[in-house]
Amino acid sequence: MAEYEIFTDATSDLPPEVIDSLGIKVIPMDFEMDGEIYSHYPDERELDSKSFYKMAEEGVTITTTQITPVRFIEYFTPILKEGKDILYICFSSGLSGTYGSSEIAILNLKEDYPDRKIMSIDSLCASSGEGLLVYLAAKEKENGKTIEELYDWVERNRLNICHWYKVDDLFHLKRGGRISSVAATFGTALNIKPLLNMDNDGKLQLIEKLRGTKTCEHHMINKLKDNYLPDKYNTIIISHADCEHEAVLLEQMLKKEFEVDEIIHSKIGPIIGAHSGKGTLLINFYGKQRE
């Protein structure tokens, strides 16, 4: 059996220490702020998240881009030259064209490396939900799964990765076309906090509009109660967009209700944060169903 590497992209929002401990390869993603282009890496080497959210709050224009076939080829080629195979777990096709871009790159690479297995799979996940899927896949690899077995595992389990988001800034949803300007203005005045999740097509959907952060967090815990499958996978990821205090409080609430083997904290990076805004709080877990 040939050796293989697991790749993902920077939208997975996994902490660098987790990435390093499991040997996961992460492809950076680009974003532009006021005409300057940055690449987002897990270690935030070009722009740290605090600076990003500060600039975003100041009204700087932000655009994000998908990974190009050229960048995929740049990152995959050295691994293929080593005689290793590749499994790439991709940012949801419901939110980005990155998956299609990876398929173009793979078609090109297979001409030069016909004996290598180069596989791309759509995670139908985003941010640390994608991160949790990659994390669990890496653990399954450690347990001895072949690349084909792991591809099948990802395909079977990706819709069990539950995402529940609390969004603080309604105007980010307005800019994304999810709510109207009037709803954003009145919702902000009334301290409305939208609760969103990922549907089975890998798209964000607005589930409820709740008043206040604490109400939203209690709903997130209730969603976990309804769907959580700790006997199967008992790792939970809590991620935040420059609101670490809220993430810590959510963990404390969680620990009062459940025994959890592992809670991983992560930061929501610029690629996701450009669309969700500062104050976004996200909990990911393995559950029965997403909705």
From TrEMBL:
Gene3D superfamilies to which the protein is assigned, alphabetical: 3.30.1180.10, degv family protein, Dihydroxyacetone kinase, domain 1
Molecular function via GO: lipid binding
InterPro entries per record: DegV, DegV_C, DegV_domain_contain
Identification of the protein by name: DegV domain-containing protein
PROSITE patterns: DEGV
Keywords assigned: Lipid-binding
Keyword RNA-binding: no
Role according to the record: May bind long-chain fatty acids, such as palmitate, and may play a role in lipid transport or fatty acid metabolism.
